[in-house]
Amino acid sequence: MPPAQLEPPFGLIVTTGLLVLFFGGTFLMSTRIGRRKENADSYMTAGHGIGFGVSAASMTATWIWASSMYASVTSGYTYGVSGPIHYGLWGALMILFIYPFGRRIRAVAPHAHTLAEVMHARHGRSSQLMLAGSNVVGSVISLMSNFIAGGALIAMLSPFGFVQGVVIIAAGVLLYTLWSGFRASVLTDFAQVVAMLGAVVVLVPALFLVLGGPALFTEGAVNVTPQQADFFSSEAFLEQGAPYIAAVLAYAIGNQTIAQRLFAVREDLIRPTFVTATIGYGATVIGMGMIGVLALYAGIDPAGGETNNLLPQVAASYLPGVLLAVFFVMIIGSLSSTADSDLSALSSIVMTDVYGQSLRGRGRRVDPRTMLLVGRLTMVVATAVAVVFASLRLDILDLLVFVGALWGALVFPVIASFYWGRVTNRAFTVSVLAALAVFLPVRFGAVPDAGLLPLLVEVLAVVGVGVVLGLMVFGFTGLRPALAIGAVAALAAAPFVLGFLRDYEALTGSLVAYAVSTLVCWAMSVRSGQDFDFAEIRRRTGDFTDPGAGDDDDASLAAARAER
């Protein structure tokens, strides 16, 4: 067992040198791709023409947060051998499951910048603001969690403190992202994901051998509970796997960082991009999660009782100097790849959904230079806000599950809006608000344990099971198989959910959010007389540097509103 208080393995000079090497290198890359006259559309989507290698690497790097690595290690340590599987496998499969939805979204809105922009073209202002607002909240929380991971890493391995580490990471990411926006994000992602995959191949086997090799699993068995030793642990599935299945589906649909890459990649390369990202994410995150399993068998206690410290603690205690430096750069690279994606996503939302749409709504043209300034100022403000909130040091795994569940309220209304012409703006808005109103008290334990109310919540959770599995099937096979699978899944789950699931608030809250938004959205849309023409979305969205784009936006939206 390592000492409770570790001596920092890196001195001031080594730490500074590694940080300068990483952030200096990424900054030089961003300056080489920078343009004297930056284009607002390229700043947000790189011209919608990114090739396979860069797009696949960027999708993988964005999906692999440093938070994901920390959370996967925590999952392995908490739930044993099945923990990393329940964290990494479902996350990987969700990338694959959203691929057909991605093709549909890109087909109806080939030149859009954000999903919220598409919702504006599909429904109107309130739906757009709802999606944009949820993305702002989610991206700031994501940014904050990556800064927390960076602060914990630097505080553990160097003489710098936690807050100093947070500020260093924030300043470094902002440095290279500010100038070239999304293009800097995707190109540095390529280098970062190559480094991450290479490091995982080296570090995990090295730690396995240092901690005892195969003998660790026999000698360390006394440190493991029966549930932690069970590959099919029900505890791991109910507390980690099932909530994560629901959460990552919502992440994939509601997260602007994924949508931004969807709008940036060449349309014919969407499928190979998603398949490659599925494999890359699964291999990396599950592999890193095994470090948590090794720590569990080795009887290692997290320093200070904080599981966020476990990954850097294990690395600092057992890796030799060179490999520890590789580990340090790998984690900095993974958190930077997601943090720069969050900054790019936030800037795109404010540029498109706040500044761009406000001018178009008043019949005025967008000034590209002002739009770029708005995007860069957004990055600065978002970084400052995330640094302030990062000082709260919240649990990373809880943050990820909470945000995913919050976005669960949006999944059905968003997907239905791309396939079903009857979905109205009012149905979208009311269904999301209703789902949030039910989700929050369920998630935070405000529902009584006895009486009819918890039973009603569990009935909604049963519906939620059917909705999640039905949506997964719908993208690949269409409506009828999805309805059949959803109904069978709900009926099969009912005996195991009713009277039982109320003790698992994270999972119940996620499922209830899916169920309520689906039921309300369907009930309000099924009798509507609207039959939306999806070709209108292509006409109402477009590049801001295209002189003809958006000219008919006001007239067409006014007509749509008049019909409603």
TrEMBL record:
GO terms for cellular component: plasma membrane. It holds the Pfam family SSF. InterPro entries: Na/Glc_symporter_sf, Na/solute_symporter, Sodium:Solute_Symporter. GO terms for biological process: sodium ion transport. The lineage of its organism: Bacteria, Bacillati, Actinomycetota, Actinomycetes, Micrococcales. Its main location: membrane. Keywords: Cell membrane, Ion transport, Membrane, Sodium, Sodium transport, Symport, Transmembrane, Transmembrane helix, Transport. The chain crosses the membrane at residues 12-31, 43-65, 85-102, 129-156, 162-182, 194-217, 237-254, 274-298, 318-339, 370-390, 396-420, 427-446, 452-475, 482-501, 507-526. PROSITE patterns: NA_SOLUT_SYMP_3. Belongs to the sodium:solute symporter (SSF) (TC 2.A.21) family. This is Sodium:proline symporter. It is a multi-pass membrane protein. GO terms for molecular function: symporter activity. It is found in: Cell membrane. It catalyses: L-proline(in) + Na(+)(in) = L-proline(out) + Na(+)(out). CDD domains: SLC5sbd_DUR3 (cd11476). The keyword Transmembrane helix applies. Residues 544-564 are annotated as: Disordered.
